[in-house]
Amino acid sequence: MQTFNHLITTRPHEVRQVFISDLHLSPEEPALVQAFLALLDDCLALPVLKRLFILGDWFEVWIGDDAYLTLSDAARQTHWLTPLIAKLKQLRINGCEILVMHGNRDFLLGQPFCNLFGGELIDEPHMLTIGQQHYRLEHGDALCTDDKKYQFFRKIMRNRLTQWYLLNKSLKKRLAIAEKMRQKSQQNNANKAAHIMDVNDEAVIQAVANSDALLHGHTHRPDIHQATTDKKRYVLGDWRLIDKEKRQPTVSAVIGVMITNAHSDSNKAKFELVEFSSLV
Question: How far apart are CA 227 and CA 62, in angstroms?
Answer without folding.
Answer: 32
